[in-house]
Design brief:
single chain; alpha/beta; Rossmann fold; 2 domains
Amino acid sequence: MTIVINMREPDERKMRIAANLIREGKLVAFPTETVYGLGADALNENAVRRIFQAKGRPPDNPLIIHIADFEQLYRLARDVPKEARILAEKFWPGPLTFVLPKREDVPYVTTGGLDTVAVRMPANEIALSLIRMSGRPIAAPSANISGKPSPTSAEHVADDFYGRIECIINGGETEIGVESTVLDLTSRPPVLLRPGGLPVEEIEKVIGKVEIHPAVKGYAVDTAKAPGMKYRHYAPNARVIVVEGRENRVHEKIIELIDEYRRKGLRVGVMATGRFYDADAWVDLGRSEEEVARNLFKALRELDKENVDVILAEGIEERGLGLAVMNRLKKAAGYKTIMLK
């Protein structure tokens, strides 16, 4: 049985139920500012293994540990550089994850077998309250079946996990809609392992040059130091094709592809950024980077429910939040894109 707890802000009585479950080694899905997380006590090996089992997640795909105050970082990581303090003062709580050398009491199951640990402080009062009341750092990947679109509402979590985990906290829709930015602070200069809710340009304003890991652009890696680097992610049941280029050319190409796939007897869905398409299903993601990021995963899930065979997605410029959006879209498409000149 799955308990569903509804709240828009922390309620001590209700939070105590969820916090007790975390202490008991159970699984609790909860909202953050990015997406919903599937949480367990990060230092409890058996609890963490249940996350991997529930999601069907490969064991070498590390988890992010969520904390509620900066000092907790020192209990999980060692050799914390000054850049971590500088960035935390600017961006924590917020969608920024640090990768650092782990301490011995952090289980390897949590870190995907690595000697590094990924840590962040979420900017969501329900998430922070759950961490504080449980007295545990909480390991929490996105609360979805591994490889599928991440959840931005409790309804999405329930679609994947109702009856399979102990608790879902319904805190409404998430604000940002894509996962946190992951920054490797074990390297000099620091390396962006995953673009996310905090644009890399904002980080560079604070600490200077940040290298972009090849995996961000789709190059294969043998070892994943952060989630989202190695395996196919964010994919709906339908085939996804991303179309990039000048706006008018993209619009014309998608109209052409709609006609082509319909002649083959396929149902076609479109993810647009402000334009209408006469497709079997159509979702407007919005015009701004923030709107597109917020609506991205919800749109992929909605189009799946429309039983489309193909999803045609308009690409956006890879700057700011657009880098994170395009990273997710291209992964959903298995890097099958059409680039127009």
